[in-house]
Amino acid sequence: MNSNKKTVPIIMDRKNSSKKIVGLTASDYSFSRLIDETDVDIILVGDSLAMVALGYTTTLPVTMEEMIIHTLAVSRGCHNALLVADMPFMSYQVSNEQAINNAGRFIQEAGDQEVKLEGGTRMARRIQALTDVDIPVMGHIGITPQSINRFGKYQVQGKTFEDMRNIKQDALALQE
Is this structure's pTM higher than 0.85? Predict the structure, then answer.
């Protein structure tokens, strides 16, 4: 293993020391190589590749298979940064077992080191199930593209006091 390779503990140490953590998104090998040659800490294979690489109008149609193919391509160019992959819509929402199986596929088949999923308090038990089997999780709260049908459009979250309080509660639930 590359001695410069960022790992979850290294990122956590940076977070706990208040050092800035830099992350960028890649969906292919070439861009991954370019990013990885910089001092970026995290490369995310985001489900946004549905729109920017595959031409979908939302993130919702991207499949596990498409995400694994893109994550594998990115992993081939990612030798220094921590590699994180977005769990696509309906790949983790149904059950803990489904989430564990799909997150495990990212790690086994695509070389991923951590998964990212949307949801705060309502996903806290799911995240706990993943971390209980040693799958690191990055939570995503606030503007959650997989909730487009609930919100009707992509919009800034946290504009009201109640919304801000809910986002803070989500963050605390994920931190726990």
Answer: no
